[in-house]
Write a structure and sequence with these properties.
It is a single chain. This protein is an alpha/beta fold. It has a single domain, classed as Metallo-beta-lactamase, Chain A, CATH 3.60.15. The strands form 3 sheets. Strands 8-5-4-3-2-1-17 form a 7-stranded mixed sheet. Strands 9-10-13-14-15-16 form a 6-stranded mixed sheet. A 4-stranded antiparallel sheet has the order 7-6-11-12, with no helix packed on it. Helix 6 links the parallel strand 15 and strand 16. The relative contact order is 0.17.
């Protein structure tokens, strides 16, 4: 099965014709299904799809990795270009009132910037579940990712606004996509708020496959301390993942360290990057 993975939106761009924007959107094409994973922050995914000659009208399903606006803000633009009904697979918590609350800063809403009825009027048909979902042959979501490592923690500045006030956000809606190939698992991450290693362990458990072939997407190592970085590197070595295309919330410092440690096995996954797998 030939697989093409095209990064439609990311913080950096592969050339001057591609828009860079903080966020992420990745298209997975297998010949049997076209799945859009996240939609970027605003117009970049749609613009870059046009630039790259990608027909968004051929997208069969959309998966939201989680509700943060840099992954869902482009949904209106994508739906406008698709001009059809489309299933959107997401966790029920995507509609929670998500905020960032950092000392010395005003509380900032960071959830989906559009109202549900607006998106549904444009063709969105939400499939909300905590469980893994089979998207196509050999492609599935992880559903909720268990927290099993002792060094991967959810950002303590993330909260949900509820009637009684505030509650810490465990980002239970964080999920990834798993593609099973003869060479091993290809795991596409959104932000991996619940940990890149937790996510990879969960992918192994769900599929019964130990071999990790390629990992692409955000790993949320942007603010990771040195201990977490080195424990993550050690775990990735143990998992023996030969290709790492990490980006977005990985952060430049962490990405450079990973590039140094993994050499040719690491690539910077910019907007416009196309990865072909068989």
């Amino acid at each position: 099965m030939a697989i093409r993975i095209t990064t439609l939106s990311e913080n950096t761009a592969s050339n001057g014709e591609i828009l860079a924007e903080w966020g992420l959107s990745i298209l997975i094409e297998t010949g049997q299904a076209n799945i859009l994973f996240d939609t970027g922050k605003s117009i970049s995914a749609g613009h870059n799809a046009d630039t790259l000659g990608v027909d968004l009208g051929k997208v069969d399903k959309i998966v939201l990795s989680h509700s943060h606006g840099d992954h869902t803000g482009g949904l209106k633009e994508i739906l406008r270009k698709m001009r059809k009904e489309v299933e959107i697979v997401a966790h029920p918590d995507v509609w929670d009132a998500k905020y960032a609350r950092r000392p010395g800063e005003a509380d900032r809403y960071i959830g989906i910037p559009s109202r549900r009825y607006e998106l549904e009027n444009m063709g969105a048909r939400f499939h909300l579940t905590r469980e893994p979902v089979t998207l196509a042959e050999n492609i599935m979501t992880t559903g909720e990712v268990p927290m099993v490592t002792d060094y991967e923690k959810v950002d303590s500045a993330l909260f949900i606004k509820v009637e009684a006030g505030w509650q810490p956000d465990t980002v239970a809606d964080d999920q990834a996509i798993i593609i099973s190939t003869p060479s091993g698992l290809v795991v596409i991450l959104g932000c991996a708020h619940r940990g890149i290693i937790n996510t990879l362990y969960h992918a192994q458990k769900l599929t019964g496959t130990d071999k990790i072939h390629t990992v692409i997407g955000g790993s949320h190592l942007l603010d990771a301390n040195e201990e977490r970085l080195w424990l993550t590197i050690a775990a990735l070595r143990e998992l023996d993942a030969p290709r790492l295309g990490l980006c977005h919330c990985t952060g430049q410092s962490a990405a450079c360290l990973l590039a140094q440690e993994f050499g040719e096995g690491f690539f910077f996954n910019r907007a416009g990057t196309i990865t072909d797998l068989t």
